[in-house]
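Lab notebook, bench 4. Still working through the backlog of constructs that have no structural model yet. Next entry is a single chain of 248 residues. Request: give me the structure tokens for it.
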Amino acid sequence: MKKLILVRHGESAWNKLNLFTGWTDVDLTEAGMKEAYEAGKLLKAEGFRPEICFTSYLKRAVKTLNQILDAMDMDYLPVEKSWRLNEKSYGAIQGLNKADTAAKYGDEQVLLWRRSFDVQPPALDMHEERSPRMDPRYNELSDAEIPLTESLKDTIARLMPYYEGAILKAFDKHDTVMVVAHGNSLRGIVKQLRGMSNEEIIKFNIPTATPYVFEFDNTMKLQKDYFVGDQEEIARKMQSVANQAKKK
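Model written out:
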């Protein structure tokens, strides 16, 4: 049996403020650090033993993974980082309050910017301060690869070659692989694995620091998927994510 563990990062400072974050590199809150550590304790208690880990270039994901591994006493595990696992770029609306933006543009428009399959938010300018082009960690990227805004479709397009070429390939040598990333990059993987429609993925929310496990047979055919933890609490957290961008 092969297992893929997906974990969205713990609560970030901008999650707490209900701001669009995207590629902005904000830190975890104290609560986010704690819930990440608790996720690791839960995985350890449930007997999960990842053998290799993948995460993004953004500190909220990196620090979540570090907390999980610390709680599991598995800090020694190999970790591979890739910008392709970064969150969806929210372009020019990064840093804006979600509820305030919904009040200005309407719930429906903001839902499309947040959760639709192929609608992009307004774009950043390539050379403005917030652009990834100005961040040295992305010097390896060409201008064509720099996302100034993305839809989920765009996120999947830059994510899946890495998923297939690195993450899936890790199963050639390992039985359990863990990916700690972001709501939208993980939703791209989930959509692919579950064969979800463009409409279904709009309504699917991944709560912070909640392990989501996919089990495969030895031919990598999906057998089942499930969230690990208290199911009522998980449902509450998923609904909380869904409500973030509703106008007050």
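Notes after review: Residues 194 and 222 are 8 Å apart (CA to CA). The chain has nine helices and six strands. Flag for follow-up if needed.
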